[in-house]
Amino acid sequence: SQQGEEDPQALSIQEGENATMNCSYKTSINNLQWYRQNSGRGLVHLILIRSNEREKHSGRLRVTLDTSKKSSSLLITASRAADTASYFCAYHNNNDMRFGAGTRLTVKP
Amino acid sequence: DGGITQSPKYLFRKEGQNVTLSCEQNLNHDAMYWYRQDPGQGLRLIYYSQIVNDFQKGDIAEGYSVSREKKESFPLTVTSAQKNPTAFYLCASSLVEYTEAFFGQGTRLTVV
């Protein structure tokens, strides 16, 4: 399987704390993206980082990419209860798009 | 409103039946994808298509078939050869490869 790995599988934090999720992949990539999924729904795109970028910010989100280690991390700062969801990394290899296994984030009010 | 629509939201299949899941987009996207998601798991790629009349197998294509006769439509058929079809199916599209994807709301398929 070419599916990536994410850790942790589950993360539970208090509101206001930061949440960090990691993603590793196995192939060369053109870009890496992060998506969010609320339970039983479709995925929503959060942020895209290109293979020649090392860090990117969008609001409370910070993404890093280390192509030498084939890994990426997503940091959500000052978390809110509404951030409770599953988060997936996705990467393009050739013409397809594959996803990591996801991190289930729970933010307690 | 532009978007990607999957139907039906819930689908029940009897053993031995083929069923077809619909995916339509009006975003003028070239690339379309089908994924399967099992409870508490990530997304696994079934099929993808970059242009009309062309598609490629993903990691778990066995027991599934697709067509891409129109740019806006990418239906998925779950055949009787798929031994464990109960899952949540997600369709996505993107303008070209390597750009953000837009997802439908999914179809939950249950074998009864």
Q: Can you give a write-up of this model?
A:
The complex is a heterodimer of chains A (109) and B (112). Chain A has no helices and eleven strands. Chain A has 109 residues and is an all-beta fold. Chain A starts with a strand and ends with a strand. The model of chain A has no long low-confidence stretch (mean pLDDT 92). In chain B, the strands form two sheets. In chain B, strands 2, 4, 5, 6, 9, 10 and 11 form a seven-stranded mixed β-sheet that branches. Chain B has a four-stranded antiparallel β-sheet with strand order 1-3-8-7, with no helix packed on it. Chain B is globular. The model of chain B has no long low-confidence stretch (mean pLDDT 93). At the A-B interface, β4, β5, β9 and β10 of A face β4, β5, β9 and β10 of B.
Supply database-style keywords.
heterodimer; A: 109 residues; mainly beta; 6-stranded mixed sheet; 5-stranded antiparallel sheet; 0% helix; 59% strand; globular; B: 112 residues; 7-stranded mixed sheet; 4-stranded antiparallel sheet; 11 strands
**Residue share in helices of chain B?**
under 10%
Report the principal-axis shape of chain A: globular
Output the helix-strand order of chain B: EEEEEEEEEEE
Distance between the termini of chain B: 35 Å
Layout of helices and strands:
The complex is a heterodimer of chains A (109) and B (112).
Chain A lengths: L4 E3 L2 E5 L4 E6 L6 E7 L5 E8 L4 E4 L2 E6 L4 E6 L8 E9 L2 E4 L3 E6 L1
Parallel strand pairs in A: 2-11
Antiparallel strand pairs in A: 1-3, 3-8, 4-5, 4-9, 6-7, 7-8, 9-10, 9-11
Chain B lengths: L3 E4 L2 E4 L5 E7 L5 E7 L5 E9 L2 E4 L6 E3 L9 E3 L8 E8 L6 E3 L3 E5 L1
Parallel strand pairs in B: 2-11
Antiparallel strand pairs in B: 1-3, 3-8, 4-5, 4-9, 5-6, 7-8, 9-10, 9-11
